[in-house]
Design brief:
about 120 residues, mainly beta, Lipocalin, eight-stranded antiparallel sheet, two-stranded antiparallel sheet, flat, RHS repeat protein, YD
Length: about 120
């Protein structure tokens, strides 16, 4: 880019592309293999730049989302990990058409973790 930041890497096996926010922070990385398979890792940042969530999209597993809860000091106090799957194609038997299916927004809860601060005496 105009500021000399890395935007992509290409080799015979894959292309890796980076997306940046208005502050120049890398907020996503997409890897496309020569076979056409693609993975994507995206970050959600707060207005102050703190990580609030992550989304990992995999060819077979769909999207795994992690959301982070923080206390007033900005420390991570909880995380919730959810898997969202996307069927490859849906078929409408009434119109005899097929189309890509939408994302399962409700998702399936994989883990819910709560953290405590280290209070050694």
């Amino acid at each position: 880019d105009p500021f000399g930041r890395l935007t992509s890497i290409t080799n015979p096996a894959a292309t890796i592309t980076y997306t940046r926010d208005t502050y120049g922070r890398a907020i996503s990385e997409t890897t496309r293999l020569a076979s056409g398979e693609e993975t994507r890792h995206a970050l959600d940042l707060s207005a102050t730049g703190m990580l609030t969530g992550e989304h990992l999209t995999l060819p077979v597993a769909g999207t795994i989302t992690t959301g982070y809860g923080r206390n007033a000091a900005g420390e991570i106090t909880s995380s919730t990990i959810t898997q969202h799957t996307t069927p490859a194609v849906t078929h409408d038997h009434h119109t005899d058409t097929s189309a890509p299916a939408g994302l399962d927004h409700a998702g399936r809860l994989l883990a819910e973790l709560t953290y405590t601060t280290n209070t050694r005496g």
